[in-house]
Structure formats: structure tokens, C-alpha cells
Amino acid sequence: MVQQLRKSITALAFFLAPGLALGQAASAPLTLKPDAPERYVVVPGDTLWGIAQRYTDSPWRWPELWRLNKDDIRNPHLIYPGNVLVLDRPRGQLSVAGVAGTAKLSPRTRVESLGPAAIPSIPASVIEPFLTRPLVVEPDGIDNAPTIVATPSDRVILGTGDNAYVRGLGDAKDAIWYLYRRGKALVDPDTNQTLGYEAIYLGTAQSTRAGDPATVKITSAVQEVGAGDKLVAAGLPQAVNYAPHSPTAEIKGRVMSVYGGLGTLAEAGPQSIIVINRGKADGLEVGHVLAVNSRAGTVRDRSRPGATVQLPEERSGLAFVFRVFDHVSYALVMQIAKPIVPLDVVQNP
After folding, report:
1. Most buried by CB count within 10 Å: which residue of 16, 43, 297, 311?
2. How far apart are CA 13 and CA 96, in angstroms?
């Protein structure tokens, strides 16, 4: 029997240098909930966000509970099921005291198994299908993508198990491909510029013969596939383990659409996915948490005939950014006070 490997990891109690704090400024110290547990045993199914909510109403400030700096949050494999978390209430921070059922460890070190997976930042099952599939096509990118140009016996509709003939694969070594077609335009509501097009996911295909055209076999189909549909190489899923944190740059944008929703009438609730008109070029990155505010509007002033009142923006919820493109991002709605709709404002929490 192979002995289970174990490793020692240095303490989590890092201290931030002045000016490096994430989230709110030092003038707004992190507030702990009165009923925050002094000790908590991590269980399977926990997330970094969920644990933070046990301790504070500002879960995007999770790194501050651990005194993490900007580099530390990029790969926060910090907590595993069975770990015992201990709250130092006077200092307002958490540390790992060991593993449930084992001897207490030094507060500066902990021992963990290599076997169990670290708990994720957010519920992984909700976003896994979106981590590698094509979601956004650049305005000119679809013309250069590999394309189904012919079908056996000139068939119009293809499904699972059928072959298709593709031009544009060239000498690509990828075996598995995603099938998609261009969907609706993603139009920036502030500039009216088309930032890209939604990619409608159709299924998967496997390359079986090189050439021009090459032959692929459709291995799964969630919609009908036909000539003119496009291919993109399937990558390996990337775990989203960035700890939730506030952007360091000032962000202000809008919700362009609710994924899978019915245009401007769509509403997003908890664990819905929203599309935002800001991306890498604007300073957004995976792990950023954004506040969503209902857009300001006007109503009739009942005290003055013919006059109107400009309403202020109101907090609708919080969203966790999990996939970022140059000018577009996808975020998972984590909390709501009211339904989130297209044109709502997103900004630093």
C-alpha cells in the first residue's frame, strides 16, 4: 500500500504592506458578523465565497480575512475539506489550525493531503460548461475559423455519429473540436459598437482524417449541425480558483445581456450568468467581484405637474467574473436584492 503523500505549507497569515490592501480602503475596516463562528470545519461543497459569507457581509473581501496580497490570491489552494478554521476576532482574520480529528498544528504551518481537491472559489458545476467553450467571437474572427463545407450525400442536417468535411483545419494537431455558429451581436450600450458575437454552442467533433477538406466525426450534438457551421479547438477546463476580490482599477460598465435570456426582457437571478461590456482591456480579470446597480431612471414628480425626478442607482446584487475576453466578460450572479436586467450598471463593490 502506497503511503499517502503529504506536504507542509507555510502559514496563511500574510501581512499586507501599506497600499496593497485589496477590497475597501483601510478607512473601512472589514466588519465581522456578530455570529461568525470561532471555529469552523470545512466540508465538501464549501466555496471560498460561502465561507466568507459566514464571517462577513462583504464576501469579495475574502483575501483580507487571510491577509493575502495580490499575488497570493492568483492560486489560492489554501483550504481543503477537513481543515479547521479558527477566527482571531480582535485581529479580524482567519487561520488554519489543523485537520479535524488530528493533533493541533502550529498556527504558522499546516499539513494537508495531496488527494482531496481544494475547495473552489464559487460553485464549479455552474460555470464548467463555460470555461472552454467558445463564448465570444471577434467581429472578424468567424471568417477565419475552420468551416464545415460539405456533408455526406449532401445532407442538410447532421447529428451525433455523422461525418462532416471541414476546410481550414490545416496542420492542426488537435483531436477534439467544439462546433458553433455565430449568434447575436454583443453591442456596447454606451458606444453602440459591436464588441463581438455570441458563439452558439452546437456540440463536439473529433478529427478522423487530415486534408483539405479534413474529415471530422460529430461526437455530440445539442443542436442541429450543418454546412457553414464553425469549429474551434477544445481546450482543457481551467479551474476557477481565484479568490474573490475587488478590482484595483476603477471599473464602470453595463450588463449587455443575460446568457440564455430573451433579449432586453431577460432577468438574472442567483447563479445566472451575465455578459458585461468590460474586459481585459479595461482591467478586469478572473476573480473580480462587481456590484450590480439598477440603472437610474426618471419618474413623474407628483408634487409638480409636468416635472420628473431623477432616481439614484440602487444595489441589485454582486457578480463574480469567471471568464474574460478583451472587451467582454462573463460573470456569475452571486447575490441579488432585486432581479438584474440588461443595461444595469456594474462597478467596483
Report:
1. 16
2. 9
**Eight-state DSSP code of residue 74:** G
Q: Give residue 166's domain range.
A: 132-233
Q: Give the strand order in the sheet containing 83-88.
A: 39-41, 83-88, 93-99
Instruction: Say what the pTM is.
Output: 0.72
Residue indicated by cell numbers 481537491: 117
**Is the same domain home to 141 and 167?**
yes
Q: How many CB atoms lie within 10 A of CB 183?
A: 14
Contacts (Cβ under 8 Å, ≥6 apart) of 311: 296, 297, 298, 299
Query: Domain for residue 301, yes or no?
Result: yes
Contact status, residue 13 vs residue 63, Cβ threshold 8 Å: no
Domain assignment of residue 24, yes or no:
yes
Q: What is the mean pLDDT of each run of 10 residues along the chain (349 residues)?
A: 25 25 49 90 87 87 75 65 88 75 40 54 76 76 86 91 92 88 89 89 92 93 93 73 82 89 72 92 92 81 79 85 91 89 91
Length of the chain in terms of residues written: 349
DSSP letter at 336 equals: E
Nearest to 287 by CA among 246, 348, 254, 334: 246
Q: How far apart are CA 335 and CA 49, in angstroms?
A: 11
First-last CA distance in the chain: 51
Provide the 3-class DSSP secondary structure of residue 76.
coil
Q: Which of 233, 265, 299 marks a domain boundary?
A: 233
